[in-house]
Every structure is written in C-alpha cells, then in structure tokens.
Design goal:
Largest sheet: 4 strands, mixed
Strand content: 5-15%
Order of helices and strands: EHEHHHEEH
Number of strands: 4
Strand order of the largest sheet: 2-1-3-4
Length: 170
C-alpha cells in the first residue's frame, strides 16, 4: 500500500471481484496502462486485491484523504452499500445492519459519517461470509471495483475516475 523506497513508483490498489464485469474491465485497463506507462521506469505498481475489501486502516485513510470531491464520495457510497443503510445476511441470523452509521454520529473531515472499527469489523465479517454464501452476494456488502492511488489520494470505480488517476503517469 505504501512506498518503501524514494524512487519507486506509486502504488495503485485495485479491490477486484472477478465475477463483476466492471471490475474485470477496469483491471484490464489498469494492466494495459501498467505495460504502456511503465516501459522505461516504474511509475506505479499495481496492488491487486482479489475478493477482499480494504482493511479498516485503509478505509480510514480513504475517508480522511481521498474524498475531496463529489465524485470520490459517490465512489465510496457505491462501493460500500451500508453507507446508504442497507442490510445483509440470511433471514433468521444476526444481520449486519449498519444504518449510514448514524448511530455513531462521527463525521470525517469531508462531512461523511464514518464506520467505527467495530462496525467495519461487522461489515468485513459479513463480506467474508458472503463469499461462501449462496443466500446473498458479497457485492451487497462491498461492491468492487475500488481503485485507490495511495500517493495521489484518489479513488475510482469507473473508467472516468481511472483515467483521472492515470493522467499523472502518462
């Protein structure tokens, strides 16, 4: 996620779901850009994260540093359905029911409400359960793709956003 050497390229993480067409398409574009823009020097490294969502620390970084405009806030809302107050889990079992985390009432510096670490752990566990479930899809908990350029503090989940991220590396 973070650079360890001064002259190495930036790190671009893609939280990827091989079953979702938008995720497959963006991974293809990112991989092509890697081959095209990194021919002479390594300008960026792709950190491919298959079938997972950001850690809580990564989520906090994203909410504090990457949500500088309406586009970025919408990306986060699209990737995390619970921000809009959705629930997931089979009927009759404990269900993740994070309501736009109004319970906490904490606002990040960008004006969006943040999940607490305990709430995020519930989301993470629901996502892990959904990966092995036939009752509900993991995309009900976290909808890939989510692309994060940690150096530029930018996020994307579509071609428009990915193109904006890649402008620096052309």
């Amino acid at each position: 996620m973070f650079k360890t050497l001064q002259n190495t390229g930036g790190v671009i993480s893609i939280f990827h779901n091989k079953r979702l067409t938008p995720s497959i398409d963006l991974l293809k574009i990112l991989t092509q850009a890697d081959g095209k823009f990194n021919m002479d020097t390594e300008k960026f490294i792709i950190d491919r994260m298959d079938s997972t969502l950001p850690t809580y620390d990564q989520y906090v970084h994203i909410t504090h540093r990457c949500l500088n405009d309406t586009y970025s806030k919408n990306v986060l809302k699209n990737c995390f359905p619970f921000i809009s107050g959705k629930t997931a889990g089979p009927e009759g079992k404990d269900r993740v029911t994070v309501k736009a985390p109004a319970v906490i009432g904490r606002l990040s510096s960008n004006g969006l409400k943040m999940f607490s670490e305990a709430e995020y752990l519930m989301i993470y566990q629901a996502f892990e359960e959904a990966l092995n479930s036939k009752e509900f899809e993991s995309s009900e908990v976290f909808k890939a793709p989510l692309i994060v350029d940690w150096e530029q503090n930018m996020i994307a989940n579509d071609e428009f956003g990915l193109d904006n991220i890649l402008k620096k590396y052309k």
